[in-house]
Amino acid sequence: MAVFRFTPTNQHRRKKVKTRIGSLLLATVLVMSTAGFTMPSKLPAVQQLSTTVPVYDPMAGIGMGINGLFERTIAGTDRTAKMYVPKGAHLGAYMVVTNVPDGEETVRWLVDSGWIKLADREKFLLYVFEPGPSGSWGTAAQEQAYIETAYGNISVNSPEGRGTWYLPPESYYVVGYDTAGSVLQKVVMKDPTLVAAATFVNASDIDGDFLTRMDSSYHPTPDWNGKLVASSSVPLPVWIISKDASRNTARVIDYWKEANQTGSRSSGFQGGKIYYQKHGTLNGYVADSSRTAVAVREKKNLRNDTVSSEKIYEDFLSLYTRYGGNVGGNTVGSRPDYKKLGVQFKTLVLDGRLREYMVYVPRKAKEAAKRGKDVPVVFSLHGSGMTMYAMFDYSRWWEVADEEGFILVVPTGLNTTNRTGWNTSATSTDMSYIPLLLDEVKAEYNVDASRIYLGGQSNGSMMTQAIGRNLALSKNFAALGSTSGGGTSTDYSGEVLPFFLLFGEFDFWPYQLSTPTVGNSMTYWINRNDALGTATTPASEETNGRYLIYKWNNADGVNVARYGVTKGRGHSIIPEEMRLLWNWYELWKKAPDGSNTYVGR
Q1: Sign of torsion, CA 296 169 35 307?
Q2: What distance in Å separates the CA atoms of residue 103 and residue 85, rounded to the nearest whole number?
Q3: For a FRET experiment, which of 79, 218, 224, 381 has its CA 20 to 30 Å from that of 7?
């Protein structure tokens, strides 16, 4: 096994500061125009996606296997779409889904509008809907089938979708232009949970009947209270740019203001007005540290202006993030500013492959180091098809770290050609990766070795439990806590290792204790930790807000195994769960003899 230290890549050095305007302004609706900028006229060559063979460099880590401008056929239609992948983009990078404006040729517009240059700089993907063979868009009714089909297959794992070529993020940014953009906005309205933020340019010609129908168009699963959720009730950051804010556009603005539960008072914002979300609303849909807003500005003769793609992305879209999933487990929040936070990007080479991880040391941990004090460490493992970036952004673990003063480590699993994930087998290279990370973190930071914790989501939860079953690795951790992934064994040997598992009410696997995924996982930890009872006979069952919590205690009455159901959530995570996991972690630390000891209240 060859291991080398590796310096941060240029990609990590190029992380750009993003300016945040006050507190996060979520679900913003703007009507305005901005000055454009002139772009070079050189046009990129168009490659056929279906005949392109991705090339994955083992020293590129989670870098994409393709780059450049690609064309793909949209199955079931006679139409195509374009996709642009900049050099240096990583798997699962953010994606802007857009359509070509009326009267524009796709490739020329992508260059002249600045979208390609911006994608090159910020390393996001572009997915572009374009007119048919005539080169002109039809009416909204004529374009509906194409746009719905093209939008629906972005994430499909087949030749008609992402196939072997790219890995999409959990949610998109959407930018719609003109008539086709109005159709795209209607698609977004039907299911806002798939979109982190959107901008629509002269693309709000949506009649009142459609908006009314969204009041009775319900998501397939209810919220955490068991209530059906209408499409029109889901908040979404939206920026509407229009030459005319009356008639249908005015109705659309009111629609988004109602969805985002704004107040009646406004403040000035970019030459217009901004209406903030009322306090105490949208709990469960918007992260606690965030706030929604609706801003409005009308600009006449907009068609004679050039709308700045840079402003759309930099000043609006990139402020937001969202983890997809069921509407009851889908949170809009601010996108973290890595440079402002001081997130460190680190790499090492293991078995001839570049491995990548992020380390966040909050202010409290740095202050503790100055006093010569060590602090806890939390390792957080992403799910299959996710990356360290996605796990960091969606989980909002950094906010809990800020409050509690622990160091956060978020690594990336192995790139397995168009996917990222963890190999849970005992002899995998990932099992060699984890102790190396432990050694690196202990050597470089003020780590309290008695308070190191591990958890993850989905495949990351499976990896967490596999590490717990690996007795050479498990001794490093004081407690485990993970979400939406199982694992089991009939070998119950090993030290007591407290374990907490959370599933969503509408997860991939049924959440009941009697089902194999949950029951077998808990059976292992009940026996491993010498708890009393079986998977279906917990010591206690309690409801705490949206959580149903089961506990298993040892003979001394200490709760050593715990299982929870998050109501309303599907196969995703919500930031509130990270706080719940930390509350579990801090109950435990290692005694001088290496045993895991309950120190909680």
Answers
A1: negative
A2: 24
A3: 381
What does the pLDDT read at residue 300?
A: 63
Rounded to whole angstroms, the Cα distance separating 53 from 38 reads: 34
Q: Is the pLDDT of residue 411 over 50?
A: yes
φ, ψ at 364 (rounded to 5°): -60, -35
Say if residue 258's pLDDT is above 50.
Answer: yes
Q: Which residue pairs, CB below 8 angstroms and at least 24 apart, start in 521-525?
A: 521/465, 521/486, 521/487, 521/488, 522/552, 522/561, 522/563, 523/488, 524/465, 524/469, 524/487, 524/488, 524/489, 524/490, 524/492, 525/497, 525/499, 525/501, 525/552, 525/560, 525/561
Contact 229, 223 (CB under 8 A): yes
- pLDDT for 184: 98
Task: Give the whole-number percent of the chain exceeding pLDDT 90.
Answer: 80
Cα dihedral: 297, 313, 145, 151 (round 10): -140
Confidence tier at 7 by pLDDT (50, 70, 90): very low
Query: What's 173-237 look like in SS3?
Result: EEEEEHHHHHHHHHHHHHCHHHEEEEEEECCCCCCHHHHHHHHHCECCCCCCCCCCCEHHHCCCC
**Distance (Å, rounded) from C-alpha 116 to C-alpha 106?**
11
Angle between helix 397-404 and helix 575-585 axes, rounded to 10 deg = 40
The yes-or-no verdict on residue 1 having pLDDT over 60 is: no
pLDDT band at 278 (very low <50, low <70, confident <90, very high): confident
- Locate 59 and state its tokens: 């020293």
What pLDDT digit, counting tens, does each position of 565-598 carry? Answer: 999 999 999 999 999 999 999 999 999 999 999 9
At 217, give phi and psi (nearest 5°).
-100, 110
Q: Confidence band (pLDDT; 50, 70, 90) for 41?
A: low
- At 275, is the secondary structure helix, strand, or coil? strand
The C-alpha atoms of residue 83 and residue 435 are separated, in whole angstroms, by 39
Q: What are the tens digits of pLDDT across the range 144-183?
A: 999 999 999 999 988 888 999 999 999 999 999 999 999 9
Q: Please write the tens of the pLDDT for every residue from 241-253.
A: 888 888 999 999 9
Closest by CA position to 411, among listed 432, 392, 431: 392
> What residues contact 246, with CB distance under 8 A and at least 6 apart?
none
pTM reported for the whole predicted model: 0.92
Backbone angles phi, psi at 583, to 5 degrees: -60, -30
**Which residue, 46, 79, 86, 73, is CA-closest to 166?**
86
Tokens representing 435 are 């102790």
Element (H, E) at 146: helix 140-152
Q: Taking Cα atoms as reference points, which of 601, 196, 575, 278 lies closest to residue 403?
A: 575
User: In this structure, are residues 585 and 481 in contact, taking their beta carbons and an 8 Å threshold?
Assistant: yes
